[in-house]
Specification:
- It contains three helices and four strands, in the order E-H-E-H-E-H-E.
- The chain has 89 residues and is of the alpha/beta class.
- It has one domain: Response regulator (Rossmann fold), CATH 3.40.50.
- Helix 3 links the parallel strand 3 and strand 4.
- Helix 2 packs parallel to helix 3.
């Protein structure tokens, strides 16, 4: 999948930067979105090959997945992966 486009959707600038650096280092093309709304718009305008989502946030991964699934019949819906990190208590 070298050269594939990955959309990173996360409200954390630091997380997006770290993930971007790793992916670009492996030859992927990377785009970013700060929330699910922006990620959906990015997917409609220029669908990526895969979307990496953060579940929590203002409008995060769960909403993206539901909305994307509902609109999948009218457009190409890229595969999506979600991740959440919970601090140790």
């Amino acid at each position: 999948m070298s050269g594939a486009t990955v959309l990173i959707a996360d409200d954390s600038l630091v997380i997006r930067a770290v993930v971007r650096a790793g992916l670009e280092g492996e030859g992927y093309s990377v785009r970013e979105a700060v929330d699910g709304t922006t990620a959906l718009e990015e997917c409609r305008q220029q669908p990526p090959d895969v979307v990496l989502l953060d579940i929590p946030g203002r409008w995060g991964g769960e909403e993206f997945l539901v909305t994307s699934a509902r609109s999948a019949s009218s457009s190409r819906s890229p595969p999506a992966a979600t991740a959440a990190v919970h601090p140790a208590r």
